[in-house]
Design brief:
524 residues; alpha+beta; Beta Polymerase, domain 2; Hydrophobic Seed Protein; two-stranded antiparallel ribbon; 57% helix
Length: 524
């Protein structure tokens, strides 16, 4: 068997199957990436029979996870983790009686190729290699979109992923058949959108999907941003601002990965601030939310969704200013509905809700630095931010950075930019270096100890006392058990319903700045 043209992991999988009497044939995107010299992480294989069985064999032998993908087409998936990298092996039964029949049922010419392991030759009946050389995505025939409408998303996704362009007849066909996307299962639409959002050219191809009439079916909240104006300091209307936020988020991620270098003084300032935290940020963003998706995957989603609540909250106030009161709360609800419709996991939906709900919170911290001329936000403010955002806090700081960057565009002034960037090192230091002191202190006193010491019963007062005591630890007011008991005694003595309500009101105000306050901060 000729496996010398395969990558080491793909060769291992093929040898494993052959030893079990199964003859695999590499096909599709796997062969395309091998030709392009791209390190493959998705291994696409076909076998004469028993695709799901073959995928289960691979998963079991290599200690991975197995998922049946398509019962009728007999396709299975094995997910293997190796040396910190995740490989996806999709194995399906050959369609038709011959390899040519199988390839003729595929979507685009660049995916209609196979590697004959008996001869070591590339099988290319539809001139896919020529299209690779021309950097274009070309359909095999217009009917491919009727056969499987999710291909309407796959074509643009390949362009974003590979830096290619759509062949003109293929682009016209996507426009023609756009409405067919509603026939595709939500799970498959989700998976294509996730892959698109992982690319460096997300904004360009999201805009293409919107122009083609596809986005209104798969991501209606993005389409709804069209035509909504914004007041100062925004230099772009809402839809264009959102795409620019996605672009800025993409630059930050590309810089963290080492794929771009700063080209102007504002990018240099961002790189200088993030550089000491690069490794920790990469580790954080690589953390899994679910078996298939990480924190990093949801940063572009957060950038895309951060203002979804603005169309529903758009108003012009008595002074003639455009305002979007509580758009972050409305947007969080829209994000939840959208992600559930796309069949994201519950944990992923909750993560997105947190990203959108709290994307304005860093402005309250920036206010302390810029308007009040402080060097850093207070420990209390830092604690409350991470108390409410948890492990999404770092992600929100990066999304807020991209959002702020996209707000000003050519109006951005270095005097403001350098001061607002001062926030990040203080927040990253607290989260990464002092988590048990500032971010989530270990309680000195437990509920039972407080109940015994002050004759308390389980209930709201005890809960508020516990939270307040942990906050006192985070701010440095309490260090020992004796101090904690004295502090709790004083807190209980001073506690009243009116004071508690006032405290809650202050916390609400810290969560979202009013438009007037935002203008003050951003124009400082």
């Amino acid at each position: 068997m000729h496996t010398e043209r395969l990558d080491p992991f793909g060769a291992e999988v093929c040898r494993l199957l052959q030893k079990r009497g199964i003859q695999p044939t590499p096909v599709g995107g796997y062969v395309r990436d091998l030709i392009l010299g791209r390190p493959p992480v998705d291994i696409d294989l076909i076998v004469p029979n028993g695709g799901r069985r073959a995928a289960k064999i691979v998963a079991d032998a290599l200690q991975g996870a197995y998922y049946p993908l398509h019962d009728e087409a007999d396709i299975g998936r094995a997910i293997i983790k190796r040396d910190g990298q995740r490989f996806i092996v999709d194995i399906g039964r050959q369609r038709g009686r011959t390899l040519l029949e199988d390839l003729s049922e595929r979507d685009f010419t660049i995916n209609a190729m196979a590697l004959d392991l008996k001869t070591g030759e590339i099988v290319d009946p539809f001139h896919g290699r020529r299209d690779l050389d021309r950097k274009r995505v070309r359909m095999l025939r217009p009917e491919v979109f009727l056969d499987d409408p999710v291909r309407l998303l796959r074509g643009p996704r390949f362009c974003a992923q590979l830096g290619f362009q759509l062949e003109k007849d293929t682009e016209a066909a996507i426009h023609t058949f756009a409405a067919l996307i509603t026939r595709s299962p939500a799970e498959r639409v989700r998976d294509e959108l996730v892959r698109l959002m992982r690319t460096d050219d997300v904004a360009t191809w999201l805009h293409f999907l919107d122009q083609a009439g596809i986005l209104e079916h798969v991501l209606p909240p993005v389409h709804d941003l069209q035509g909504v104006p914004q007041g100062r300091p925004h230099y772009l209307p809402l839809y264009e601002h959102t795409l620019e936020t996605v672009r800025r988020m993409g630059w930050i991620l590309a810089w963290l990965d080492g794929r771009v270098t700063p080209q102007d003084k504002f990018e240099e300032a961002v790189a200088k601030v993030l550089e000491p935290w690069r490794e920790k940020l990469q580790e954080h963003l690589a953390r899994e939310l679910t078996a298939l998706r990480t924190h990093r995957d949801f940063l572009p989603w957060g950038a895309l969704a951060h203002d979804w609540g603005k169309p529903k909250t758009y108003k012009v106030d008595d002074r003639g200013r455009i305002v979007f009161y509580n758009h972050e709360r409305v947007g969080a609800a829209i994000a939840a509905d959208t992600m559930r419709h796309l069949r994201f996991a519950h944990r992923e939906v909750e993560h997105m809700v947190t990203l959108v709900r709290h994307h304005m919170r860093p402005f309250a911290l920036i206010r302390q630095i810029v308007r009040d001329k402080q060097e850093a936000p207070s420990r209390r403010a830092v604690y409350r931010f991470f108390r409410d955002t948890g492990n999404a806090g770092v992600d929100i700081l990066l999304i807020n950075l991209a959002d702020d960057w996209a707000t000003y565009g050519p109006r951005l002034r270095m005097s403001y930019w350098s001061r607002r960037l001062q926030l990040l090192p203080h927040m990253f230091d607290a989260y990464f270096n002092h988590p048990h002191e500032v971010v989530r202190p270990r309680p000195i006193l437990r509920g039972r100890e407080l109940m015994d010491a002050f004759d308390l019963k389980p209930g709201p007062v005890l809960g508020r006392l516990l939270n307040a005591l942990v906050e006192a630890q985070a701010t440095g007011e309490v260090h020992t058990r004796a101090q904690a008991l004295k502090w709790a005694e004083q807190w209980l003595a001073q506690q009243s319903t009116a004071e508690d309500n006032h405290r809650e009101e202050e916390e609400e105000q810290a969560e979202a700045l009013s438009p007037e306050e935002i203008n003050e901060v951003e124009q400082a």
